[in-house]
Amino acid sequence: MVNIAICGVLLWPYNVIMRTYVHTLIWLTLLWGGRAFPQEREGFVVTFYDKKVKIVAPANAASDLAVALENITLGPLAGKLVTGTGELITYFTLESKAHKNIIVGEHLKKRVFIIPLNPPGQDIELKLGQSAYEIPPSEN
After folding, report:
1. Distance in angstroms (rounded) separating the CA atoms of residues 122 and 52
2. Are the beta carbons of 115 and 45 closer than 8 angstroms?
3. Residue ranges per structural domain of the chain
4. Which three-class secondary structure state does DSSP give residue 109?
5. Does domain 43-135 have CATH number 2.60.40?
6. What's phi and psi for 94, nearest 5 deg?
């Protein structure tokens, strides 16, 4: 009987901490609602693979639209974002297994391209409204 009482006393702080933790998680979930997992994308997600590039595009342009770049390849990447008229938006570099967000904002009123510089590759146009596409196109 004594051993049970001692264990109960020793476990009391653990139970309080776990109960507080679970209650905090429940309240955060209720407060955030569906905002933790937005239904509509707010920017482009461009994922570089060894032999293809996958682009997931937002439905429409926002004033602070971003381009999320993700490098899944084994080597570093370098490139630039430019408009269709050749106006430079920014240069970027990505290490292997890294990602970076770039705000393009008002530039998306024009055509925007990603030009891979190292390793060199095909220019990638960011097209609004197209759900997901690949460069080169998949042969399904």
Report:
1. 10
2. no
3. 2-36, 43-135
4. helix
5. yes
6. -135, 125
What pTM was estimated for this model as a whole? 0.65
Residues 64 and 104: their CA atoms lie apart, in Å, by: 7
3-54 confidence digits (pLDDT tens)? 455 555 555 555 666 667 665 766 556 555 544 444 444 788 999 998 899 9
Q: Residue 58: exposed, middle, or buried by beta-carbon count in 10 A (0-12, 13-18, 19+)? A: buried
**Do residues 89 and 112 touch, judged by C-beta distance below 8 A?**
yes
CA atoms of 53 and 49, how far apart (whole Å): 6
Q: What is the longest distance spanned by two Cα atoms in the chain? A: 83
Query: pLDDT of 101-114, one tens digit each?
Result: 988 877 666 788 99
Backbone angles phi, psi at 7, to 5 degrees: -65, -40
Q: Which residues make beta-bridge pairs with 103? A: 66
